[in-house]
Automatic annotation (TrEMBL):
Organism (species): Azomonas macrocytogenes
InterPro entries documented for this protein: Phytase-like_dom
Source lineage: Bacteria, Pseudomonadati, Pseudomonadota, Gammaproteobacteria, Pseudomonadales
Superkingdom, taxonomy of origin: Bacteria
Annotated transmembrane regions: 36-56
Protein name in UniProt: Phytase-like domain-containing protein
């Protein structure tokens, strides 16, 4: 019996030693910026559009925000738009009812969870409640993309988009505005892709690149064993996809054609520093990646940190050693 226990202890120790040896490198924090002026708070998406950092809130259906980044305190200025009636969806009546109730109670009927831009200056906003994408052109005209009818069916066949508040959570587009990726948040999490072909959006081959239900080891500082993996935002940069994985405090580089993870970096040391901790829910919801680093936006859900800060926060991290394309 003693030998069995000793063997088990050795196996556990070996497992944790191997996990520590392959632990993701920690991103280096350069700056931290509170964001003022977002009417509904709840920063849920970031994107650099024509040299200007833009943001959306999942509480505001009629505006996106331009961020003045010249000072430590970033000031948000609203850029209004009028969204047409959202398209009908084939989501279950239960999910649609719960989304309606959530919008009524907290505000934000559309539940905007992401923003991205193409080279022409079009902004693409992701509605989780209606699993749809709103395109806002530089003049402020807004229209819903006509995504394939079969996209949802293929997603649900792969066990995606089946639970309320666990639908689309991030989107990315290529500079030409011809390839669009969508991230399904959790239960299960996944990555989907559609392409502009001729005169319509279609799936090139299969719609679903990745669908998985997995558990991840958390940062050791949290003292937990494992938890359900998720996606909370998505960026296309330099031919790769980058995912924000909120539960594990990771930014991961992925193959844009398969969704396969290639390398991850951690921001846990920044997020879990004692002054930055929250007593209640908060989460990293927004991501932007480029040659100048990574920007991670925190949706504080109107809660206050240990240091008293109660505004949305954006962290600016340095490009990791070796660059975003570095191998392990």
């Amino acid at each position: 019996m003693i030998r069995i226990l000793a063997c088990c202890c050795l196996l556990v120790a070996s497992f944790w030693a191997a996990a520590a040896a392959t632990a993701p490198a920690e991103l280096k924090l350069l700056d931290e910026h509170p964001v003022a002026g977002m009417v509904g708070g709840n920063l849920s998406g970031l994107a650099l559009c024509g040299g200007t950092l833009m943001a959306v809130s999942d509480r505001d259906d009629d505006r996106l925000y331009r961020l003045d980044t010249r000072e430590t305190l970033w000031q948000a200025t609203a850029e209004p738009f009028v969204a047409p009636a959202p398209p009908a969806t084939d989501l279950s009546w239960r999910i649609r009812l719960l989304s309606w109730v959530a919008g009524f109670v907290r505000g934000g009927w559309l539940d905007l969870e992401g923003i991205t831009c193409d080279a022409a200056g079009n902004r693409y906003l992701l509605s989780e409640a209606y699993i749809s994408v709103l395109r806002v052109d530089p003049a402020g005209h807004a229209e819903w993309l006509e995504l394939p009818d079969y996209l949802l069916a293929q997603a649900q066949a792969r066990k995606l988009l089946l639970a309320f508040n666990a639908l689309y959570e991030g989107l990315a587009i290529d500079p030409q505005g011809e390839r669009l990726w969508l991230a399904a948040e959790r239960q299960q999490r996944g990555l989907l892709r559609v392409q502009w072909q001729g005169d319509r959006w279609q799936c090139h081959g299969r719609c679903v690149l990745l669908s998985e239900s997995k558990r991840q080891l958390p940062p050791p500082i949290l003292g937990k064993t494992s938890w359900q993996a998720d996606f909370s935002d998505l960026v296309f940069f330099s031919g790769k996809l980058f995912t924000l994985e909120r539960a594990a405090h990771l930014v991961c580089r992925r193959d844009a054609g398969t969704g396969r993870a290639e390398r991850c970096w951690s921001y846990a040391d920044t997020a879990m520093a004692e002054p930055r901790r929250y007593a209640e829910f908060n989460g990293a919801e927004a991501l932007w990646i480029d040659a100048d680093g990574a920007w991670v936006g925190v949706d504080n859900n109107e809660n206050r940190r240990n240091d008293g800060e109660d505004r949305p926060i954006v962290w600016h991290f340095a490009v990791p050693d070796g660059g975003w394309g570095a191998r392990l």
